[in-house]
Write a structure and sequence with these properties.
mainly alpha
């Protein structure tokens, strides 16, 4: 069994949520009584799913052993993939043409994908900050004999 840190659990949990959200409807379009749902597997939105799978895979030690360069750049990889997972649904939400001219709605899949991306990104930020703590440098001792003269 692999022991994951709290940051890796947050990154992995957010990535799993984002991957599952790709199967849920992101938009529903209704026109003259006909409804059509659009999931996260439409066009470039698939990048969010692929980034989530890559991020999940990068958490396991087998991936780190197979590609040695992953270990030294793991924090950058986690941050970049989490950013993709977050930005794809965010851009999809922002680029929505004013509620699709009254013919469509945003659905739960888009919001859960965005929440998963934010969770993964938060885990990556926490991981990066904890591993890059500033080193306390000792202050030089003050020579008291020199100051009394």
């Amino acid at each position: 069994m692999t022991n994951f840190t709290k940051q890796e659990i947050l990154i992995g949990g957010g990535s799993i949520l984002a991957a599952i959200s790709s199967f849920l409807p992101w938009y529903t379009i209704s026109f003259w009584g006909v409804k059509q749902s659009i999931s996260g597997f439409t066009g470039w939105w698939t990048l969010s799913f692929l980034a989530a799978l890559a991020l999940i895979a990068s958490l396991f030690p087998q991936a780190k052993k197979a590609v040695p360069q992953i270990e030294e750049n793991i924090k950058v990889i986690h941050m970049a993939l989490a950013a993709v997972i977050t930005l794809v649904p965010l851009i999809a939400l922002i680029s929505q043409p004013s509620e699709m001219l009254g013919m469509g709605n945003v659905n739960i899949g888009l919001f859960t994908a965005l929440a998963g991306g934010i969770a993964a990104l938060a885990g990556g930020i926490i991981q990066n900050r904890q591993n890059n703590q500033p080193i306390d440098t000792p202050t030089p001792p003050v020579n008291e004999s020199a100051s009394s003269e």
